Amino acid sequence: SSFNFIAPSAFYNREQRDLTTDERNGANYSVRESMLQLDAGHTFGKSAEGRIGIQMGYRDYTVPAASRYGRSGGGTVFGVTGRWILDSQDDPVTPRSGAYITLRAAQYFQAPQTSGYAKSEATLSYAAALTQRITILTGLKSGWTLSGAAPQPEQFLLGGPYNMTALAYGELRGTSYRYASGGIRYRVTPQSTLLGGALHLGVYLESVNARRDDGSHGDYTDLQIAAILPSRFGPVSAGFALGSKGTKRLYVNIGRLN
C-alpha cells in the first residue's frame, strides 16, 4: 500500500577524505559535519518511494598546514534535497532478478568554500538469472554538477569496491562522471550454509569517465574478481582488482557494498 510520511533526522559525521585525481597531487581533508534534515515523502507500493527535504547544519574542512593543496574553512550549509528510489531486486546482497534505481538531486544555497551549487546523480543496478547458479549483472551511474562549483570534498568521489575497485576511495573525483559495469556471478555452494547464505564468485568489468575542475577528463577501466558470502553476521566479501593504469587493490569488506 502507498502512504505519505514525514521523516526528521539528524547526524554527525567525521571522516578523512584523501583526494587525488589521475595520479596528480591532491588534498588531505578532515571533514566534520553536523546536519539536520526534514523530509516529506510518499511510498509507491512496496518497492518505490520519493521524498523532498530541507537540510541545514554546519560543515568544516581542515587541511594540514604543511599541505600544498586544498584549503581549510567551514560554514553553514543550507539546501533542498530530493530522492527517488525503486527497488525490485529479490535480494539486497546477491540479487538474481530485478532493478535498483536511484535518482538524487540537491540545491545548496549556502555551503563553505562556495557561493552555492546544484548537483544530481542517477544509478541503475540490474540482475538477471541465466541459470539456477549463474546471474548476469549490469550497472550504470552518472552524476552532474548542474550549476555553481562544488568544493573538492563534495564533488563526485570514485574508488572502492564496486565503484572503480582498483582505486582507493576518493582517488578519482570529478564535477561530473559516467560509470558502467558488467559482470557474471556464480553460486558455488547450496543456498544455505553453516555460515548463512551461499558462497558466490564473480567477475566484473568497470569503466568510468570523470570530468575535472579544469575541464580535462580522467578515464579508468578495471577488472575485478570477488567472493561474496551473505553470512549470519552480515555480508562478507573479498576481492582483487587490476586497473588499466597498473593500479592494483586487494580488499576485504564486512557490510553491504555500493
How does this structure look, described?
This protein is an all-beta fold. Helices cover 0% and strands 69% of the residues. The protein has strands at 4-21, 24-44, 48-62, 73-87, 97-110, 117-129, 134-148, 156-158, 172-174, 176-187, 192-193, 196-197, 200-211, 217-231, 234-243, 248-254. The strands form three sheets. The chain has a twelve-stranded antiparallel beta sheet with strand order 1-2-3-4-5-6-7-10-13-14-15-16, with no helix packed on it. A two-stranded antiparallel sheet has the order 8-9. It is globular. The two termini are 28 Å apart. The relative contact order is 0.12. The mean pLDDT is 88.
Secondary-structure blueprint of this entry?
Elements: E1 4-21, E2 24-44, E3 48-62, E4 73-87, E5 97-110, E6 117-129, E7 134-148, E8 156-158, E9 172-174, E10 176-187, E11 192-193, E12 196-197, E13 200-211, E14 217-231, E15 234-243, E16 248-254
Antiparallel strand pairs: 1-2, 2-3, 3-4, 4-5, 5-6, 6-7, 7-10, 8-9, 10-13, 11-12, 13-14, 14-15, 15-16
